[in-house]
Amino acid sequence: MQGRLRVVQAHTALLKNHTMHALGESIERAEKKGLDPLAIMANRLRAQITERRQELYIGQRLQPESSMAEAFLRQRQQRLGGGIAAV
Fold first, then answer.
1. pTM reported for the whole predicted model
2. Do both 54 and 83 map to the same domain?
3. Residue 31 and residue 3 in one domain
4. Does residue 25 belong to any structural domain of this protein?
5. Residue 30 falls within a domain, yes or no?
6. CA geometry: angle 19, 20, 22, nearest 5 deg
7. 23-77 per-position pLDDT tens digit
8. Which of 15, 33, 54, 84 can bridge 77 by disulfide, Cβ–Cβ 3.0-4.6 Å?
9. Is residue 42 part of a domain?
């Protein structure tokens, strides 16, 4: 019986450390505060999709070797939080 209990406790500990468990707890806390975390995430994803579509639209119209293309890539990298390698 003790062996089974230890196995169950170990399994429970693994589940509690899983990222999906942490996400579920975060969602529950937000909902208790009256927030709709899934709607917030959906809105953020929609905004990111819109931004990527705009980037694609602009990128398709630039000549690859132009200074405008280089500036576009540099600004995009800055927005995404990274530096740009030598272009």
1. 0.56
2. yes
3. yes
4. yes
5. yes
6. 65
7. 999 999 999 999 999 999 999 999 999 999 998 888 888 887 888 888 888 888 8
8. 84
9. no
Tally helices (H) and strands (E) across the chain. Answer: 4, 0
Cα(34)–Cα(66) distance, rounded to whole angstroms? Answer: 50
Kindly state whether residues 26 and 58 are assigned to the same domain. no
State the pLDDT confidence band at 82, using cuts at 50, 70 and 90: low
Whole domain around residue 78: which residue ranges?
Answer: 48-87
Q: Note whether 53 and 21 are same-domain residues.
A: no
Report which of residues 77 and 86 the model is more confident about.
77
